[in-house]
Amino acid sequence: MTLIITNVKEEFVKNFKDLANEIHADVKICEQEIENELQYTENGYTKEFEKQILQDIQEVEIQRKNGTLKTYDSVKEAFESEGII
Once rounded to an integer, what is the mean pLDDT over residues 63-83? Predict the structure, then answer.
C-alpha cells in the first residue's frame, strides 16, 4: 500500500518517520512537487481521466445522433457480437 501526504510541516515528517520505523514500514520522502499527478476534479477523478471520459461520452453522443451507436439487449448478445464468446 502507498500513502502520499502532501503539504506537511517538517515536524510531522520526523514523527511519521518514527512511526513508520516502529511498524517496519518503508518511508520515502520526496520534496519535489508531484501535483500534476495528484490533481483531482470535484468528482474525485484525475484531470486526465475525467477529460478522457468526457471525450468518450461526447463520442457516444455523436454516434447516437448519427444512428451509428451499437446497442445490445443483453451482455450475452454484446459479447457474441464482439466475438468474445
Answer: 93
pLDDT digits (tens, 9 = 90+) for 30-50: 776 555 556 788 888 888 899
Higher pLDDT: 35 or 53? It is 53
C-alpha angle with apex 51: 46 to 53, nearest 5 degrees? 95
> Which residue's C-alpha cell is 513508520?
20
Within 8 A by CB and 6+ apart from 26, the residues are 20
Beta bridge partners of 40: 46
